[in-house]
Write a structure and sequence with these properties.
The protein is mostly helical and 133 residues long. Helix content is 95%, strand content 0%. It contains one helix and no strands.
């Protein structure tokens, strides 16, 4: 065998050790890349879920907004109907008052008319008695 220099053996051993460490480092890098890609996939999935939830939230807000507007319109229509009801009740009351007044006047007129008729009849009888009697 040719003579071997210890220095070259050491260098070769060191180089082999360095190569092993480099290979281990490369494997770790590959594993870390895989782990990062897996986590990125999870992040992308979560981002998609967040977008979906945001879209759903936007739709729900729009539905709620429409519902609130409908409720406001409904409440406004109730207020309008209440005002119309108050007007109609007042008109009804006024009509009843007017009807009572007209009945009273009608009774008075009937009473006057009856009195006048009785007087007329009495006067006619008197005339009949005087003329025919």
């Amino acid at each position: 065998y040719p003579p071997v220099c210890l220095g070259s053996l050491r260098r070769a051993a060191n180089q082999s050790l360095v190569n092993k460490q480099l290979n281990i480092g490369k494997e770790k890098i590959v594993l870390l890349k895989d782990e990062i890609e897996a986590k990125n996939d999870i992040i992308m999935q979560h981002s998609q879920e967040v977008r979906s939830l945001k879209d759903e939230l936007f739709i729900r807000r729009a539905e709620i907004s429409k519902h609130v507007k409908d409720q406001k319109k409904f409440l406004q229509s109730i207020k309008t109907l209440e005002k119309e009801n108050e007007k109609l009740q007042k008109q009804h009351k006024d009509t009843e008052t007017l009807q009572q007044e007209l009945r009273k006047r009608l009774k008075e007129e009937i009473f006057k008319n009856t009195k006048t008729r009785k007087k007329y009849l009495q006067n006619s009888r008197i005339k009949i008695h005087l003329v025919g009697g």
